[in-house]
Amino acid sequence: MKMVDCFPPVSELTNLNPEEIGPFLLEYLNMIDNDPARSTLNRYNFTLETNPELREYAQEQLYQVARVLTEAWVWLEKEGFLAPMPNQTGDFVFITRKGKKFKNSTNFDSYKYSTLFPVENLDPILAQKVKPLFSRGDYDTAIFQAYKEVEVRLRRAGKYGDEIIGVDLARKAFNPEDGPLTDKSRVKSERESLMHLFSGALGSFKNPGSHRDVDFENPAEVAEIILFANYLLRIIDSRLPEVSIESEQALGAFGY
Predict the structure, then answer these.
(1) Top-level class of domain 3-109
(2) Which of 19, 37, 151, 205 is such that its CA lies 20 to 30 A from the CA of 141?
């Protein structure tokens, strides 16, 4: 296959961001890396006007295409998909073990959306348990584990036994009258709303995964659902300072 077979039309390519071009470029580089006749990967040589495949693909927009492909190449290096070739000078690179895992552009969806979870903003337990599942595309399990952690944290914060689970647990913990996590400084309607927020979240996202297979296919939607669990954990931690301390200790234990 040639470049013209691997990349979008030039009119589309020049309007894409580096992270959007990167999957197409990596797919092409993986392909030529397996061809002994074309296995030398060099950014300078790749974007030269004398590169016949580039000339065929870019036509009259050779310079513009070379620029956006260079941006994508540098992005691949920054993300660890390409690395400088040992014992070589100049722009020679090799495809890393990470880069070999993404042999086609469709495999990039999970990776692309996993960047929505910056570790510095993510609860350490979610960073340790959920982010790897999401990156592998195991969306159902990632959501279940995220809301299981919400339930576990609620039980520990409210000092409840294992016999109270899910929606009932949330309603007891945030009961507007006597729940250990309710904020009596708020008006009753707000305290009730927070109770409904937690019970609704566990009922919607944790309980279904406990009883049956749930198909989540949109990684952006899954990321939003997990980040909502992250927000719920922040609320729990803010109600009991000792829980926040445990989270900070866990963060250090996981090396973040």
Answers:
(1) mainly alpha
(2) 19
Give me the residue spans of the domains in the chain: 3-109, 116-253
Rg (CA), the chain: 24
Mind listing the pLDDT tens digit for each residue in 104-135?
655 566 666 666 666 677 899 888 888 888 87
| Phi and psi torsions of 180, nearest 5° | -65, -20
**Contact by Cβ (8 Å): 142, 128:** no
The model carries a pTM of 0.59
Can you tell me the distance from the alpha carbon of 156 to that of 84, in angstroms, rounded to the nearest whole number? 48
DSSP for 64-108, please give it.
Answer: HHHHHHHHHHHHHHHTTSEEEPTT--TTBEEE-HHHHT--SGGGH
DSSP letter for 42, please. B
